Amino acid sequence: MKKLIFVLISLWVAGTLFQSCDNTKTYAELLEEERDAVKAFIKDSAIRVISLEEFEKDTITASKEAGDDFDEFVAFSNGVYLQIINRGDKETKAHFVNGDEICARYLEKNVATRETACFNIFQPDWQDAGRVYTQPAVFRYVNNGTSSAYGIFTEMDYLWSSYYQSTAVPAGWLLSLPYLWNGARIRLIIPSKMGHSSAQQHVTPYYYYIQSFSKAQS
């Protein structure tokens, strides 16, 4: 009888372990789910994707917000998608350069769930949350031409500091800067490997509406 009980317990433990292992997804499987989520987002949003070669002919993308008939995003080889709604100040054409302090006003959404994750621009459901809107995120842009560009948050807005805390700026944000001028407005779809630390940890792609990338006033 004791042997039978031992066998039954062993089978139950083995089955539990098997089920646990079966429910654990590999990194490759998570990446495949991420790619599927991005494809579905692009399809559901009726986005027209163009190649980098096509984009670099004029560095312009169509945008409904700018009065065009459709939304157009350029696809980069690292999985980032970029739409330029407004390139920025056409009078000065002031590019972002090494050492600039850049203020970012943005909305972030989880591509897979379509849920709003983080933001510092006005949202109707959060209109009474004054702390959310009091300040932009501010980061220092480092691009000395000898190594990969990176950004460091010198001031984090209320939600970003609450949720993510990391001072590293998503690499996908930085990829857009060479194409922009002061005061630019863009949209981005950023895969986990080009996102913030939480995106990388959970293999989560994010959509961003960057209402403004502007040089901080000195």
TrEMBL record:
Gene3D superfamilies reported in the protein's UniProt record: 3.10.50.40
InterPro entries: DUF4827, PPIase_dom_sf
Any single Pfam family the record assigns to this protein: DUF4827
Residues of the signal peptide: 1-19
Superkingdom: Bacteria
Record flagged with keyword Cell inner membrane: no
Name assigned to this protein: DUF4827 domain-containing protein
